Amino acid sequence: MLTFVGLGLWDERSVTVEGRDAVRAADRVFAEFYTSKLAGTTVADLEEHHDVDVEVRAREGVERDPGPVLDAAESGDAVFLTAGDTMIATTHVDLRLRAHERGIETSIVHGTTAAAAAASLTGLQNYRFGKATTLPFPYAHGGDDVPASVLETVDANRERGLHTLCFLDIKVGHERAETDEHMTASTAASLLTEAGRGDDLGAVVARAGSPDPVVVADRLTALAEREVGDPLHLLVLPGGLHHIERDALVELADAPPALADERLA
């Protein structure tokens, strides 16, 4: 049996009760934190809280060499952990399909996601979000600017009056980075400003799921100069605003009223 468990957004306590029970009952527990991570905890804290040993797998150990995970699931109960939800953004459908090819039963225990938190914390309506995108570090895509695909996604959503959720790059063990790197919202806003989008309205969400999340909205030029503390960060680029969404950004995220009025649909 292979059970995929989403750990939620912040620390060792963010997992659901169902997920907690699955972790504690497993024969072996695997995890990956290269696509996202729990910024409020460590692997050691996870192990202590759940009284289990967690075997952290690198990207290659999941995508190219899933054998140890599948072998464990074939001979007993294995759990595979990720931050957020295991099938939303941190997608592991391929691993699940490989398990099915070997006749291994699978199940999913969902965790809350960054996408849900972004809508909830900003007050923007979930059904008014369009296609999401990821803003990479320039060195990670071989350029020195924002990829055209990112700008095209934002523009296509905006033409339809939809909001764009930008996931910000995480680099774990990259040869160009001395330590793990997490793109900040100010860096993302700076990159978009350099791409000619500085007058656009943006909404930053920092440390979603923590006891002290930060939500702030302003022009991207202003957000490029604003620090919001420790990771993880998200950036939302609103499309057309419903009047309740406008009020939410002003009251909950300190958006300049005149700027929010510009985006009223």
UniProtKB/TrEMBL annotation:
Pathway: Protein modification; peptidyl-diphthamide biosynthesis
Top-rank EC class of the record's enzyme: transferase
Residues reported to bind S-adenosyl-L-methionine: L9, D85, I88, T113, A114, L168, A208, H233
GO molecular function: diphthine synthase activity
Domain Tetrapyrrole methylase: 1-223
Highest taxon of the lineage: Archaea
Enzyme Commission no: 2.1.1.98
Summary of subunit composition and partner proteins: Homodimer.
Task performed by this protein: S-adenosyl-L-methionine-dependent methyltransferase that catalyzes the trimethylation of the amino group of the modified target histidine residue in translation elongation factor 2 (EF-2), to form an intermediate called diphthine. The three successive methylation reactions represent the second step of diphthamide biosynthesis.
Name listed for the protein in its UniProt record: Diphthine synthase
Gene: dphB
